[in-house]
Automatic annotation (TrEMBL):
A GO term for molecular function: heparin binding
Chief localization: secreted
Protein name: Protein NDNF
InterPro entries hit by this protein: FN3_dom, FN3_sf, Ig-like_fold, NDNF, NDNF_C, NDNF_Fn(III)_1, NDNF_N
Role according to the record: Secretory protein that plays a role in various cellular processes. Acts as a chemorepellent acting on gonadotropin-releasing hormone (GnRH) expressing neurons regulating their migration to the hypothalamus. Also promotes neuron migration, growth and survival as well as neurite outgrowth and is involved in the development of the olfactory system. May also act through the regulation of growth factors activity and downstream signaling. Also regulates extracellular matrix assembly and cell adhesiveness.
Organism of provenance: Odontophorus gujanensis (marbled wood quail)
Length: 559
């Protein structure tokens, strides 16, 4: 029997030839089964590529095998195998079949005969396991191969369907696919505050040599540390959120899902994933090896993982993760309200605690005014310890109460959602001097599609029967900023929070007839095919602004 076989297919050819020779000896049912099994192995076994990372998909309790043969010209070949589990622990083994060099040489030249195949079958007892590992850590096996050795890499997952990556290389001199870690790969916590944690880590040798293509990326979550980048991304997907492969740390923000927020500032890319177990933040900060994580919640334990990422190959290596608990925030003191003075309160949604404001009446009648700035807020008012009002705030809310002079009112505020909320509060005995201006029926801004050109947009909004000041502002935005701009809008902020260059105009108007209390404005000097965010502020006699709902309009591309 003669068969031609490339050297890198030797294990499969030998297996097939052995089964085929058995079938030629005696056409029994068992030999047919052996023959079919040989063909099955030939067509369904996999060759592991040298110098390339391979993704291996595993079905529960079904082993998967890869074969490889290392060099036929040299007596000894050094090689490394790196396996990165991307989810649950797996078991993987390296097995070696030591056949004679002459047998492999004859097979490579197509000179394999029946006697040779028989010798190969008898040598099956020479298969031995040289390495075995079970777990979910990144593990590397370093070996030295002889010319006459065939190798098999076997994977098994006993918990559930999963995937892993494997990297085989015989090139130990020209560099590495994975960035190198320092001798001490630990992350050090050098500062802890109420809402911040400062971290530092030693530089990767790869980052020092290739600053343009090697970056550090940090992952922050409240669950546990991750041993690899693909394990972190898999966990985010299992949290019930769709996430494109290697999204955050491969720097592909244009693939963001609706549950994600991207922030790019000071050469740092931050992606916040909204998952069922809280937020998972991913921050890429270039080659800086010290970073202060901001906007954390007080008295909360966070887990921090640093990955050094090769931007050219998307390969990464994980530092040893750490954790830290932010400092506990002191109990807020009860703030005293003063007549006619408005205060804005920011509420922590995660703690779900009440924020307290106290007021001692100087008159029998008092009026509370609430303006919702962001999120959802509930207020609870007691008078001398007895509840007098409790409800959710929607937009603006006036509440008039009667009592006695020197009655003590306690206003308690609480966020109704997990994210932070904000509300503005004022109390006054002067009913004829309202805090907020008279409001129109709707705070929506309308744009006219037919009047839209390449360099101008026409908008309209409702006014009132009261002479008031209206200020218009515009802001150029990008497509990926729309969601963030609308979600982070603070309806209590006034024109003072805007940049001077964003101001379009301010004007006064009113109309006794509400049917005619409408005004329009054409904003010119815009760029073609560009998104703009327009805001209108209503400023009444008290000087307190009310912000209309933001409007986003795109100018025409061609005119």
């Amino acid at each position: 029997l003669k068969m031609s076989c490339p050297w890198f297919y030797l294990p499969l050819c030998l297996l097939t030839a052995a089964c085929l020779c058995h079938s030629l000896k005696a056409p029994t049912a068992s030999s047919q089964q052996s023959f079919q099994s040989g063909l099955f192995n030939f067509y369904h076994s996999l060759i592991l590529a040298d110098g390339k990372e391979t993704t291996v998909h595993l079905l529960k309790d079904i082993p998967k095998r890869y074969y490889f043969v290392l060099g036929e010209d040299r007596a000894l070949v050094p090689f490394t195998i790196t396996v990165t589990p991307c989810d649950v622990p797996i078991e993987w083994s390296v097995l070696v079949h030591r056949a004679s060099a002459s047998l492999l040489g004859k097979a490579a030249q197509g000179e394999l005969n029946t006697q040779d195949v028989s010798r190969f079958q008898k040598a099956t007892s020479m298969v031995s396991t040289i390495f075995n590992y079970k777990g979910n850590s990144v593990e590397t096996y370093v070996g030295m191969s002889s010319q006459s050795a065939l190798y098999m890499l076997e994977f098994l997952s006993t918990e559930r369907d999963t995937h892993t990556t494997v990297y085989l290389t015989t090139d130990t001199t020209s560099g590495h696919l994975y960035p190198e870690l320092p001798l001490d790969p630990r992350i050090d916590v050098i500062g802890i505050g109420h809402t911040t944690v400062t971290l530092t880590w030693k530089h990767s040798p790869s980052a020092l040599q290739h600053r343009e293509s090697i970056h550090y990326c940090l992952l922050v979550n409240e669950k546990h540390n991750y041993k690899s980048l693909c394990a972190a991304e898999t966990a985010i997907r299992f949290s019930g959120m769709k996430m494109p492969p290697a999204l955050a740390l491969s720097l592909s923000p244009y693939l963001l899902e609706p549950q994600q927020v991207m922030v790019l500032s000071n050469s740092e890319l931050s992606i916040i994933n909204k998952v069922s177990s809280g937020e998972v933040r991913q921050i890429c900060m270039g080659t800086k090896n010290t970073y202060t994580v901001p906007n954390l919640s007080p008295s909360t334990q966070y887990y921090f993982d640093v990955f050094v990422v090769n931007l050219l190959t998307n390969a990464s290596a994980a530092y040893t993760g750490t954790f830290a608990r932010t400092l506990e925030e002191p109990e807020p003191k009860v703030m005293k309200l003063k007549d006619g003075k408005a205060v804005q309160v920011v509420l922590d949604g995660k703690k779900q605690k009440f924020y307290s404001l106290q007021y001692q009446a100087r008159h029998k009648k008092v009026q509370f005014a609430f303006q919702l700035c962001r999120g959802q807020v509930q207020f609870h008012i007691t008078k001398n310890g007895k509840t007098v009002a409790s409800e959710n705030i929607l937009g603006l809310r006036y509440l008039s109460l009667k009592g006695k002079v020197l009655d003590t009112y306690l206003v308690q505020l609480r966020s109704k959602e997990e994210s932070n909320s904000s509300v503005k509060v004022q109390v006054s005995p002067h009913f004829h001097k309202p805090l907020f201006p008279l409001l129109p029926e709707s705070l929506k801004i309308k744009s006219f599609s037919k009047l839209r050109t390449c360099n101008s947009v026409t908008i309209a909004w409702l006014g009132t029967q009261e002479q008031s000041k209206y200020c218009v502002y515009k802001k150029r935005i990008e497509e990926d900023q729309v969601w963030m701009e609308l979600q982070n809008t603070d309806t209590c902020s006034g024109p003072e929070s805007r940049h001077k260059s964003e101001k379009v105009l301010c004007k006064y108007f009113y109309d006794i007839n509400l049917q005619r209390a409408v005004t329009t404005e054409t904003i010119k000097g815009l760029d073609a095919g560009t998104l703009y965010l327009f805001d209108v502020y209503l400023i009444g006699p008290s000087g307190i602004p009310v912000r209309y709902h933001s409007k986003i309009v795109r100018t025409r591309k061609k005119c």
